[in-house]
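Quick one, tokens below:
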């Protein structure tokens, strides 16, 4: 089995409340990992996770209301530190790209809200899609219950009614032709929505 050389977090973000941040800090210290907290201006905080061997990860948190948002871009080599960052990323539903680097290839994981949506294998010869998220039953049910199309159809009907009233009141043939063009476009959109 291939041994992982490093893990990269690329433009990743995660969110947590102040309570969740305090819980994370209580669980962050282990026999291998320690942490420091730096309080910056404007309610921002930087948490530094440090491995016993000296490797560090800097997590910058910006306060937005009652939520702390962390933007994470780093490369982690140490397995203990990698495990701590991975748990943080998954527990607090991170979004972004995570590259797991092995000798000769890289596995690129794309996360949305803590779940893997796509996995690709990157080699010197190119990229190969390994996995892509398919819609779950809950997502399909949500799409089924969505009434956006019905709302657009109702709006389109109101628009057609206004156009027909305007056509009846139009005095010139050029205005009637213009309205007929708009009615034709509305009819085409009706057919698209009905499909």
């Amino acid at each position: 089995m291939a041994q992982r050389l490093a893990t990269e977090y690329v433009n990743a973000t995660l969110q947590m409340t102040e309570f969740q941040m305090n819980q994370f800090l209580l669980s962050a210290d282990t026999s291998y990992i320690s942490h420091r907290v730096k309080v910056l201006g404007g309610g921002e905080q930087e948490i530094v996770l440090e491995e016993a061997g000296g490797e560090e990860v800097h997590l910058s948190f910006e306060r937005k209301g009652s939520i702390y948002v962390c933007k994470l871009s780093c490369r982690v080599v140490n397995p203990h530190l990698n495990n701590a960052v991975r748990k943080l990323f998954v527990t607090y539903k991170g979004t972004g790209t995570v590259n797991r680097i092995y000798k000769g290839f890289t596995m690129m994981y794309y996360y949305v809200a803590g779940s893997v949506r796509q996995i690709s294998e990157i080699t010197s010869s190119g990229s190969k899609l390994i996995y892509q998220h398919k819609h779950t039953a809950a997502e399909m049910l949500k799409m089924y219950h969505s009434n956006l199309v019905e709302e657009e159809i109702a709006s389109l009907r109101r628009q057609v009614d206004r156009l027909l009233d305007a056509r009846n009141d139009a005095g010139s043939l050029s205005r009637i032709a213009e309205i007929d063009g708009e009615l034709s476009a509305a009819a085409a959109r009706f057919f698209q929505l009905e499909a």
